[in-house]
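hiii, so i know i said id send this last week but things got crazy w the move. better late than never?? heres the sequnce for the chain we talked about at the cafe, plus the structure i predicted for it. fair warning i was half asleep when i ran it
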Amino acid sequence: MDPAGTDTHPSVPAPNLFMPHPGFSDEVNRNIVQSEIEGGVHLDGLGNGAVLEVETQNHYYTIVKIGGAEALISGHPQYCPDPVQVRIEGSTWGGSMLKIRYIGRGMRLEFMHPTYRTIRTSRIVEIRAKDHLMNARPDPARISRSDSASATQQRSPTPDPTLKQRNPPKP
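okay and structure toks below
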């Protein structure tokens, strides 16, 4: 403060840092921190028609948000060679913990396919935002992997309490 009593330093909000949860194992807490460092996209923060390109270790997927957790996905030669409507469940580290409606680098995308049921991808390497489509149900040619519009990277600004424990799938 200066002699007149006015604050000469602008206030800077304190960052919202992740605090380990005492009920989670050290491994789960480390995974949560790592997902925040590597970044990702919360589906709830995207508008309908938003387009994401998701690169995994094995495939390139194109995801078009329809609404809520519903999306069109394409990019896998067997499960979705053409756009198919799915429900994005979220991302996982491979176990029974799921970060719901979140697509995170270093994690595996999990979605509910109408024919094949639960699909879990290989590890996500990169996520790119594409041009926003005006129509939430686009022509498949508009969401092809050959589209080369400029990409921007989406980051998760704060930790998200959208983790839920699931029962592992039965064989």
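btw Residues 74 and 80 are 5 Å apart (CA to CA). thought thatd interest u
miss u guys!!
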